[in-house]
Every structure is written in structure tokens, then in C-alpha cells.
Specification:
Blueprint (H helix, E strand, L loop, with lengths): L1 H24 L5 H36 L2
């Protein structure tokens, strides 16, 4: 039983070391890059939302006219 505790402790320590090493590799974006990407994502989301709304409205009008 003592051996399994040592083995688990070693695995946890190895995992922690690996996790720290991976976190050091992360390249965080600058504030400017983050702002530009956020604006791009929000803009595209709004445009696509409007496009889907317009298409939905057009299809609704077409189907309403078709089934009258």
C-alpha cells in the first residue's frame, strides 16, 4: 500500500511539472490583438444574426403567401 501511495505521489508531481511546463509555452495575445479579434467576432456575429433574421422573414412571407 505504501508503494502505491509513492507511485501516486510521483504521478501527481510529474503531472504538475508537465502542466507548469505547458503553461510556460502559452503565448498570450496583446491587448491590441485581443481587442481587434473581439471586435471582429462581435461584428461577424451581428451581421450573421441580421442575415439569418432577414432570411427567416423572407421565408415566412413566402410561405404565408404560398399557403393563402
Amino acid at each position: 500500500m505504501a508503494d502505491s501511495d509513492k507511485t501516486n505521489t510521483n504521478k501527481v508531481q510529474e503531472f504538475s511539472k508537465g502542466l507548469k511546463a505547458e503553461f510556460r509555452k502559452i503565448v498570450w495575445p496583446t491587448q491590441e490583438t485581443l481587442t481587434k479579434q473581439t471586435v471582429a467576432v462581435v461584428s461577424i456575429s451581428v451581421v450573421l444574426g441580421l442575415l439569418i433574421s432577414v432570411l427567416d422573414w423572407v421565408f415566412q412571407l413566402g410561405l404565408t403567401a404560398l399557403f393563402r
